[in-house]
Amino acid sequence: xxxxxxxxxxxxxGLRPHPEGGHYAEVFRSPHPQRTDRGTRAAMTSIYFLLRAxxxxxxxxxxxxxxxxxxxxxxxxxxxxxxxxRQLQSVQLAPVLPPHTPQCTVAAGQWQAACSLGDYSLAxxxxxxxxxxxxxxxxxxDDPLRAWLAxxxxxxxxx
Length: 159
Known about the structure:
The two termini are 27 Å apart. This protein has a single domain (2-157), classed as Jelly Rolls, CATH 2.60.120.10. By secondary structure, it is α+β, with helices and mostly antiparallel strands. It has 3 helices and 14 strands. The strands form 3 sheets. The protein has a 6-stranded antiparallel β-sheet, covered by helices on one side. The mean pLDDT is 95.
């Protein structure tokens, strides 16, 4: 039933594959421009983001703050990595019941990765200043942080 619901959401929300993994659709882009050191961006953007069982949001970073909000489905394991301090934080996004939280912020420039802890998970992701693929970076396979992850958190190194 859950795999059926995931396919239903992909169709209903018009989701398409995202380069980091999973499926997404932009649902809002502010008409208000904001100047940044990277150029002019929308003040804020928002997407629906769906991960099915076995799909991962691969290690990536965005040059703006990002807010994840759980909407439906299984909890989401969201991992945040401070590359300079080599500090990893993991949270479970889901309805409010400890140890879960319904939303979590990823700071601008912080590495992040995620996966569904069940058949599927649907989230809303809000980025401010707004998302632009020019500000998006996937972690390279030979990035030194991958070796650090392999030594210290091997279960996350393959994300």
